[in-house]
Amino acid sequence: MDKKSIEILGDNHISTSVETPLRSDAFDKSDVEKITAIQYHFKMIMQELGLDLTDDSLAGTPYRFAKMYVKELFYGLKPDNKPKLSVFENKYGYNKVLIEQNINIDSSCEHHFLPITGKAHIGYIPKDKVIGLSKINRLVDYYAHRPQVQERLSLQILKDLQHILKTEDVIVVINAKHLCVSSRGIKDKNSFTTTIEYGGCFNNDLKRKEFLDIVKG
Ligand SMILES: [Zn+2]
């Protein structure tokens, strides 16, 4: 891709697929091997920027950076790290909307590798299965900890919940600020981005409005 197209794709925050684009050998290396390799490459970046890596304050940065990428910011790339999402029989027959709101979003934009921070609000109408509430938060956290675009993050959460809960009746709203919009480029400090993805009964305007009114508070 030429440099102009690279800029256009990044500035318009276009994603190309619902699946995170991963290489087939993505997890051939262990975490330790990845940290060692990234540590080396980030040291090269710092040196290219002209930084003196013999300074005590900078010497450990390549290792800290590499460990943070593999173990924290991007732990959600690795399928082994996916939370176990146990579901239970809907014994009490609850069949109205259940909403988990103000779930923290700590993610990173895949075009600039800068933070995306905000809140997710998720609703579903149980059929035969219900899920432990904290599991929804854990699933959001897992998918957020990848290089992301907000639209894909919303869809990945939606599709997983629909699959686990065996119902299309799920809705996902995310409000988030993108540091790549607030701190570079247009440098707009106040704007934020909202995405809404849903299926099943939430295609009905009234059902969707009921959810959105509750989320608005
Ligand atoms: Zn970005």
Automatic annotation (TrEMBL):
* Stored Pfam families: GTP_cyclohydroI
Q: What domain of life does the native source organism fall in?
A: Bacteria
Q: Name one GO cellular component term.
A: cytoplasm
Recorded catalytic reaction(s): these are: GTP + H2O = 7,8-dihydroneopterin 3'-triphosphate + formate + H(+)
GO terms classed as biological process: one-carbon metabolic process; tetrahydrobiopterin biosynthetic process; tetrahydrofolate biosynthetic process
Entry EC no(s): 3.5.4.16
* Membrane-spanning residues: none
Instruction: Cite the entry's keywords alphabetically.
Output: GTP-binding, Hydrolase, Metal-binding, Nucleotide-binding, One-carbon metabolism, Zinc
Record pathway: Cofactor biosynthesis; 7,8-dihydroneopterin triphosphate biosynthesis; 7,8-dihydroneopterin triphosphate from GTP: step 1/1
Q: Which residues form the GTP cyclohydrolase I domain?
A: 39-215
User: Per UniProt, where does Zn(2+) bind?
Assistant: C109, H112, C180
Q: Which molecular function term from Gene Ontology is one that the record holds?
A: GTP cyclohydrolase I activity
Output the InterPro entries linked to this UniProt entry.
Answer: GTP-CH-I_C/QueF (IPR043133), GTP-CH-I_N (IPR043134), GTP_CycHdrlase_I (IPR001474), GTP_CycHdrlase_I_CS (IPR018234), GTP_CycHdrlase_I_dom (IPR020602)
Check the record and name the HAMAP family matching this protein.
FolE
Similarity remark: Belongs to the GTP cyclohydrolase I family.
Q: Give the quaternary structure.
A: Homopolymer.
Record-given protein name: GTP cyclohydrolase 1
State the organism named in the record.
Answer: Polaribacter porphyrae
Question: What's the name of its gene?
Answer: folE
